[in-house]
Design brief:
Blueprint lengths: L4 H8 L8 H16 L4 E5 L4 H9 L24 E7 L6 E2 L13 H11 L3 E2 L11 E3 L6 H5 L6 H19 L4 E7 L2 E9 L2 E3 L2 H7 L3 E5 L4 E5 L5
Helix pairs in contact: 2-4, 2-6
Bound molecules: zinc ion (ZN).
């Protein structure tokens, strides 16, 4: 059974708690936009409290295990609800993947790359662009603030937050006014025509589609009327 958007979103629900509201809005938009592109993601990490971060930092240092982070508590944007980590959600809706080359939707663009494109359009910085330690599953919004400033209680300004919301809105609007998008028209699994989608309406030869459905098509040039009669009415 195909994964619905609601199902995909639900997978990340618990990780959205504690995020800065604008980061949460961008994250939900990211899940949605990736879904629309045929790429499903799950948020694996959102807010990480300073205590949780310290416990993680201790791992591989003063506690057993492998080193998993170089950030002490209070030095990660996760500690302030400004960062998220993601993984690709596989079609079974359970397994996840960190395969940066996977192309699950078969569009010749790696799914990971598609997610990064969408995230950047929504205003996120990508951990894969970091100069020191690359962090491919990581996105953050810093608002130009260092973690030391955040630790000291500084917050993004109202104007910065407003601008971030506006960026998310612009992404959504850009989708809605898409014009002249070429589309393939498939009837019962067979391509019968090309069409053009214009602001949510698809224009395509009516005859090709109707005949593919087994209907009879008549055109009266005098009245400029096309009459489509379905099989059942013949
Ligand atoms: Zn992260």
């Amino acid at each position: 059974m195909a994964l619905t958007f609601e199902k995909v979103k639900l997978k990340s629900q618990s990780r959205l708690k504690g995020l800065h509201p604008v980061v949460e809005a961008a994250t939900v938009a990211l899940i949605e936009r990736c879904y629309a592109r045929g790429v499903n993601i799950v948020i694996t990490q959102g807010l990480r409290t300073i205590a949780e971060q310290n416990a993680l930092y201790a791992q591989g240092r003063t506690k057993p295990g492998k080193i998993v982070t170089n950030a002490k508590g209070g030095t990660s944007y996760h500690n302030f609800g400004l960062a998220i980590d993601f993984a690709l959600l596989l079609p079974d809706g359970k397994q996840v993947s960190w395969d940066l080359k996977r192309d699950g939707d078969g569009d010749k663009v790696a799914d990971w790359t598609e997610v990064v494109q969408e995230a950047k359009a929504l205003g996120f910085e990508w951990g894969g662009d970091f100069v020191s330690i690359k962090d491919a599953p990581h996105f953050q919004m810093t608002f130009g603030l260092k973690t030391s400033q955040l630790r000291a209680g500084k917050e993004p300004t109202a104007a910065q937050v407003k601008a971030a919301y506006a960026k998310i809105d612009r992404c959504k609007e850009a989708d809605e006014v898409k014009k002249d998008v070429p589309v393939s028209v498939i009837v019962d699994g067979k391509k019968v025509a090309d069409g053009v989608a214009d602001n949510g309406v698809t224009y395509t030869p009516a005859r090709a589609v109707a005949e593919a459905l087994g209907a009879k098509v008549d055109y009266d040039a005098k009245t400029k009327t096309m009459t489509i009669t379905s099989k059942g009415d013949n």
